[in-house]
Every structure is written in structure tokens, then in C-alpha cells.
Amino acid sequence: MRYAVSLPQRDVFAAWRTAARQAISHRIAPDDIDWNGQGALFASAALPEPAAGHAARVPADFIALAGAVIWHSAPDRFPLLYQALWRLDQHDGTPLSPADPLGRRLALMAASVKRDIHKMHAFVRFRELPAAGPRRSFGAWFEPAHHTLEPGAAFFVERFADMDWLIATPALTARFTDGVLDFDTGGERPDLPDDATEALWATYFANIFNPARVKLAAMRAEMPKKYWHNLPETRLIPAMLADAEARVERMRAAGASAPRPGAAAVSTRYRATLPIAADTPETLEQARRAARQCRRCGLCEAATQTVWGEGDATARIMIVGEQAGDQEDLAGRPFIGPAGQLLRSAMRDAGLAPERTWLTNAVKHFKFTPRGKRRLHRTPDRDEIAHCRWWLGLELAFIQPQITLALGASAAFALTNDARPIAERRGGVETGLHRGPVLMTWHPAYILRTTDPAMRDRLRRDLVADIGAARIRASSSGLPNSPISA
């Protein structure tokens, strides 16, 4: 028995899916169905009703593939899809695989349909039409390669929901009126009025054209010539291409313009005004000047400036934090933000005058992530800490403290190359890379981040006690230590 199926022009996927379910339920073979409804040499009957008890089970990939292939312009798209459905139901090979001739052909058809929808979204050009009501009205003519107006219209509904419009094609016309989308038959190109905005668009298109980057093959791949006669800007392309070489020469002759003052990054501008630093600093002041031009890692590119240590150059105690914060980066001084204020308060409680110590950081530039107008702190990684050991080593060599206080894990790693958590080391004294004693304690910023008031008070008492222990040890210590290794 030979069967004939006639599918409508609209909602064709739903109609094909219903007919395919009906046919497969009766186990009608692909060769016994004429999907174009044209009949054959022998009489053709309609599909039997109702559907039989057999139901084919197919993967979701097949439904997605069929939902794209169904809009292809090839007349055999319906029998090809049913053939794939039949083979899936019969467990006959892998008809969806690119290695299968049928699967490859269907995949290429689906890709062609998706590409055609993309081109429609890119190349439909509306012209404004007279409108009687409050909603503006627009019309466009487009010639798709496939039957893609129906699946592609949802894009325009979402994009132009506040206006009425129509898109006419040879096969179908989409009309969006008062928020309702409908389809009508297609036909000849409608007589659309001229639109003043086309001249404005052409001017913009001509001005963004870069003759130095003309690649004809790439341009035709993105904008195939079959669409050109419906695009207002394409009439400019031949003249622009003809003048491209001469225009490049004019651009080359004009040369580059000088950037406006202030266009360079802040760090670049301030480094440009600095004197040349010594390659091997011989004093603490020379080291400070050299550090202002530091480019040992990428942190210098976004930070405002190098934040060098400050305090007593003959101090017996050096206190090392993690890195400069937001306020320190702007002011160029260490420990002046909230964490620094907590540290200085704890030092006074421990009987240690801040001006009698040397305050510095393991990393001399502020590492952050911008969030609007704010700059959020980011912990420096091990490579950044290792790059900055050069400067920390110079400070230790010139200050020669009796003891060094490491605030937090980053400072502890910089001084000892030991990455263990500070919680299991706090209060202990370890030997640093400079072969001098390093006392481990909490970073004031960690104390500030603690939300439990009782825990925060306990951590602050720990910090005061550790500072006091460092003060006592420094007052009874002997000879200064050797510098840290670079």
C-alpha cells in the first residue's frame, strides 16, 4: 500500500511530527510514504487512523535535529527525517551520527537552516510605514534561502515588541500587530517607501569602514552577495573597495595622533617622572627609590604606586604585613587603613611605639579586583610574593632587626617559604630565610573580618600578646641578623 501525506505551509513541524507518529505506529516503511502529497503511478491512500499501539522512542537529539531540518528548502527533508525515525525505531545503525551518510546530511541541513536564521536576523532592513494609531509601523522584504521566517520571527517579536511590523518573503509574510504575531501568504516584493534613516545608516557604515583591514573572502562569508540587493549599505561597498588602497595611504601619511594628557595609566605617568634607580642599592634610601620603579611582576600595572616601608631605620623590630591596601596604595604609606589602625592600637597596648619599629609589607603593590568605584582586596599568589622578596630582603639587610613579626600567612610565607596555615603557627618563633627569628601572629585584617565579637576580642588579645613578646625578645637580643635571601 502506498500512502500520501500533504503537509501545510504553516506549523509544518507539528504537522510532520503528528503524521510521523501515526505512520510509525502502524510500522509503515519509509518507501511506502509520499511526503509531498503528490501521489505516484499507483493510487495513494491517506495514513490509517487512528494511530496503532506502537510508539517509537527517540532521543531528544533527534527532536532538536528535526526541529531545524524541517525548515530546510530541500523537498526530500520530510522523507529523510522519517527515514531517520524509522531506523531509530528499528535500531538500524546510528542515523544521527556524522559518520552515517544520513546523519551527516541531516546535520548539514540543520546547520544551513541555523545559518539562514542568523543571516535573517542580521540582514533584515526595516523601513517606516505610515501608521494611523499610536504604534509606529515598519516593513521589510527578505529573501531567505530556506523556510526560516516562521522559526526566526520570535527574535523580532522580542526585539520590536513596542511597534507594528511586517516581514515579507516570497513564501510567507509575518505580521506583528498590537502585540500579536500572525502569518500570511508570501508573494512579490511590496512597494516600501523610502526611509530617511537609511541615509544616516549609510553614513555610519561608510565611517566605520577600515580600508586597512579589508578581507574580501571574510566579508563575503559573513555578508554573502545574494543579500546585497536588499541592503542599503551595500551600494557603497564597490566604491569603498576601489578607494581602499588610496585611503590607507592617506591614513599612513597622516600618522598617529598624540594621546591626550592623562591617557596613560597613573602608574606609568608617575614612573616616567622618576630618576633612574641604582641597579644594586647601597642604602635604604636608594632601595626605596628603586622600588618606586619596580616592574618585577604585573601588579605594578594596575596599582597607583609602590608602598615602601616606613619607621625607624635602626629599629629592633620589623613588622611585615601582606600587601598594601586601598588607602595605602593611594597615600603611598603602609598601615594607614582600618587594619593599620588596629595594628597601631595593639602596638600601643603592648607598650611598643609604632615610630620605633619598621612597618612594611611582603608585597609592595596593591592587588585588587575593581567593583564599580570600589577596589576589592585580592590575596597575592606565591609567585608575586616570591618576586617581592628582593625588596623585603633589602629592607631586612639595611634595618637588621632583632626580631621580625609576621602578620598572617602571606607574610609568614614571604619570610620562611613555609605555606602552612597561620592558625597552627601563631605565637611560635621560626627561623626565617634571613636566618633570623620570625614570630607568627594574626593579621589585623583577619581580626576585623571576624564577625563573632568574643572571637574578635580574643584574637586582638593574641595580637597584643605577640607584639609584647616581640618587644621583650628584641630588648634582650644580641647581634643583628643577616639579610634575607633574594
Describe the structure.
The protein has 486 residues and is an alpha/beta fold. It contains 17 helices and 15 strands. The chain has a six-stranded mixed sheet, with helices on both faces. The protein has a five-stranded mixed sheet with strand order 3-4-5-6-7, covered by helices on one side. It has a two-stranded parallel sheet with strand order 1-2. Helix 14 packs across helix 15 (408-416).
**What's the mean pLDDT score?**
87
Major sheet strand order: 8-10-9-13-15-14
**Radius of gyration in whole Å, from Cα?**
38 Å
User: Helicity, in percent?
Assistant: 40-55%
Q: What structural class is derived from the secondary structure elements?
A: alpha/beta
List the helices and strands and how they pair.
Layout (H helix, E strand, L loop, with lengths): L2 E2 L7 H14 L7 E2 L25 H10 L7 H14 L10 H23 L3 E3 L7 E5 L7 H11 L4 E5 L3 E6 L2 E6 L10 H13 L7 H7 L14 H6 L1 H11 L11 H7 L11 H8 L18 E2 L5 E7 L2 H6 L6 H12 L8 E6 L4 E4 L2 E4 L4 H18 L3 E5 H9 L12 E3 L5 E5 L2 H6 L3 H23 L11
Parallel strand pairs: 1-2, 4-5, 9-10, 9-13, 13-15
Antiparallel strand pairs: 3-4, 5-6, 6-7, 8-10, 11-12, 14-15
